[in-house]
Amino acid sequence: MHDVIVIGGGNAALCAALTASERGASVLLLEAAPKEWRGGNSQHTRNLRCMHDAPQDVLVDAYSEEEYWQDLLKVTAGKTNEHLARLVIRSTATCRDWMRQHGVNFQPPLSGALHVARTNAFFMGGGKALVNAYFRSAQNLGVEIRYNTKIVNLEIENNTFKAAIAEDGTRFKGASCVLAAGGFESNIDWLKQAWGQNENGEWPAENFVIRGTRFNQGNLLKFMMDHGADIIGDPSQSHCVAVDARAPLYDGGICTRIDCVSLGVVVNKNAERFYDEGEDFWPKRYAIWGRLVAKQPNQIAYSIIDSKSVGRFMPPVFEGTKANTIEELAEKLNLDVSQLKKTIHEYNQACVAGEFNHTVLDNCHTKNLSPAKTHWAVPLNQPPFYAYALRPGITFTYLGLKVEDDAAVRFNDSPSPNLFVAGEMMAGNVLGQGYTAGVGMSIGTTFGRIAGQNAAKAALMQGV
């Protein structure tokens, strides 16, 4: 028997395991994936959104608690718990020293991501390096780690955790437990159920790409829902971005994201625009585009730029479709030629000349065009032209377990004495909808440490 059992192998789970071990608890970490795929979605991450009142090593200028909160409030449209959100925000001001103690290194943002140099601290080597550092530290602290161990059931009596049951029937007994096994984003059947059918009789989720791990099936979340745990969140809401339509079904990660949306126009299969591409800075808006594409016919769209934009965004892993004319581009994309020409012509005519600057909310906008393009609107008139086909890319889902600032799982508003939750399984408390870059890691790090601390405390109190 262990003091603390942690179920999951991503950032939140590792933060919980490390913190519980630091508090003197014996810890068993159970990861569903094999060792080579360990780390959940965290292996695909790049950075952590950080509050800071003055420049800090890789972070420039300042990013106050209030500005962070306002950014989060805007993208969630108010669907967030302010108390928990501010708890996360304040935690990010000090957590990096703890992360460094466990082997995580930081670096300045690479070219193409300089617009978040003030708000986000980038991991040297990316999320994979962070995950590996945490696993090394966990082993050094004596945390026992078991891979290929999918937990499908929990023994819970009077809201108190007793044991975790693996798919093969193995029973893992613990004095306390932290659930950090991710959402249900790789469960296509559940996504279909959540999204339902559209007016055309399509099942949008059939055309989704899963950006992250294939192992987040949501089995523990489903178990807890069936067991009566308090739930929060809309099952159709998620971190959903526009990715290259050629991306693999699972584990495409960051390199399949298309980042040129704000530099050109986006059209659907009918060759029509459907949203303001320049509404706000890309890190604050990239996570709405997957959902926007999901609501288009056949869940497909095309991001179109001209040669002026080449070099102004982080290039994806796949090359775009290239053409010397809009007509040729339409033919290659199998779009209606006359309609695409009309769309681009109307956009070009509506562009108001200004001073283009992609690092600020510039004065390049459209006039008398619907939908408008609010910033960075310059005519597409310099061939060659490039297009990237887009699909909705699901990173993680927001349906989860309701918590307060103790990270305890709740049943009818009553906290469990020894069962806690962190990461994607509770992120919906802070993220009711929308996303801003790096906040998922902020939530996972904050609540992983809280859950680990309180799980250790609950376990060690039983031994007193």
From TrEMBL:
<keyword id="KW-0175">Coiled coil</keyword>
<dbReference type="InterPro" id="IPR003953">
    <property type="entry name" value="FAD-dep_OxRdtase_2_FAD-bd"/>
</dbReference>
<feature type="coiled-coil region">
    <location>
        <begin position="323"/>
        <end position="350"/>
    </location>
</feature>
<keyword id="KW-0285">Flavoprotein</keyword>
<dbReference type="InterPro" id="IPR027477">
    <property type="entry name" value="Succ_DH/fumarate_Rdtase_cat_sf"/>
</dbReference>
<protein>
    <submittedName>
        <fullName>FAD-dependent tricarballylate dehydrogenase TcuA</fullName>
    </submittedName>
</protein>
<keyword id="KW-0560">Oxidoreductase</keyword>
<dbReference type="Pfam" id="PF00890">
    <property type="entry name" value="FAD_binding_2"/>
</dbReference>
<dbReference type="GO" id="GO:0016491">
    <property type="term" value="F:oxidoreductase activity"/>
</dbReference>
<dbReference type="InterPro" id="IPR012831">
    <property type="entry name" value="CobZ"/>
</dbReference>
<dbReference type="InterPro" id="IPR050315">
    <property type="entry name" value="FAD-oxidoreductase_2"/>
</dbReference>
<keyword id="KW-0274">FAD</keyword>
<dbReference type="InterPro" id="IPR036188">
    <property type="entry name" value="FAD/NAD-bd_sf"/>
</dbReference>
<feature type="domain" description="FAD-dependent oxidoreductase 2 FAD-binding">
    <location>
        <begin position="3"/>
        <end position="431"/>
    </location>
</feature>
